[in-house]
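Whiteboard transcription, Tuesday session. T.W. wrote the structure tokens on the left side:
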């Protein structure tokens, strides 16, 4: 972690969860303070259909609620899409933009992602901007160049430490049980901090950089101990309160 940056432990439920999952959310909300102490923030990004109810369940806990995507426009003829204003209206304080699954499944470009971040800010919502290299790009030695390009294209110049969070998620580490080495994560995050500084100046020093990709209770302490890793974005392991809370515990000093 980076001294003086308050870590964020964020869950991304992806396309999982119905009203039957609200008990798990309740357990996350009730257990977070005991697990993480008061030195970290918690967040669960649920499917849009659950945001309202999740806000009710988590409202009085230290865990916030987020969405997983938003449209760039405030309203309009965009069947099936959801505006950032609608997420905020349901109780979301954050929204993930540019997740690799959106970039792949919906062919979202860096410019689309930047427009969605701007939309989040228009609605008063924090944008969690995701980026990361594919396996092919890593094997070709292109990781740092890809990250430079993605920061330049996906992060608007108006980003601040308050309105933006950057999540480094190597695509090949998502849902695979594989993680980069500690050295590789440290290198990627130091590079991201430097690239972000070129884009937004001093604000970059206080902006949270999350690591995502196969974070589990068993590897969380090692990943979170890396300089410039200011929290985690957790997929599969965020669906179970015990695992999410186990990861949250890793933000505490030993
Ligand atoms: O994509 C992710 C979070 O956004 C990571 O997913 P997993 O933790 O399941 O690898």
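and on the right, the sequence the group agreed on:
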């Amino acid at each position: 972690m980076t001294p003086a940056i308050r870590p964020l432990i964020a869950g991304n439920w992806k396309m999982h969860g119905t009203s039957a999952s609200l008990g798990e959310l309740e357990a996350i909300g009730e257990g977070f303070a005991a697990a993480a102490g008061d030195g970290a923030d918690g967040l669960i990004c649920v499917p849009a259909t659950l945001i309202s109810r999740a806000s009710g369940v988590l409202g009085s806990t230290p865990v916030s609620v987020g969405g997983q995507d938003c449209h760039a426009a405030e309203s309009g003829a965009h069947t099936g899409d959801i505006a950032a204003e609608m997420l905020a209206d349901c109780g979301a304080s954050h929204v993930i933009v540019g997740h690799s699954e959106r970039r792949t499944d919906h062919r979202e470009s860096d410019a689309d992602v930047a427009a969605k971040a701007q939309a989040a800010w228009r609605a008063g919502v924090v944008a969690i901007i995701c980026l990361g290299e594919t396996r092919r790009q890593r094997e070709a030695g292109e990781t740092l160049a890809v990250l430079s390009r993605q920061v330049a294209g996906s992060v608007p110049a108006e980003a601040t430490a308050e309105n933006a969070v950057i999540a480094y998620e190597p695509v090949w580490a998502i849902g695979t049980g594989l993680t980069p080495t500690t050295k590789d994560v440290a290198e990627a995050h130091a590079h991201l901090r430097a690239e972000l500084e070129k884009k937004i100046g001093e604000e970059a020093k206080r902006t949270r950089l999350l690591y995502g990709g196969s974070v589990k209770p068993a590897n969380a302490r090692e990943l979170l101990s890396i300089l410039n890793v200011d929290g985690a974005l957790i997929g599969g392991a965020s669906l179970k309160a015990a695992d999410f809370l186990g990861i949250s515990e890793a933000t505490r000093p030993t």
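Someone added at the bottom: The two ends are 14 Å apart (CA to CA).
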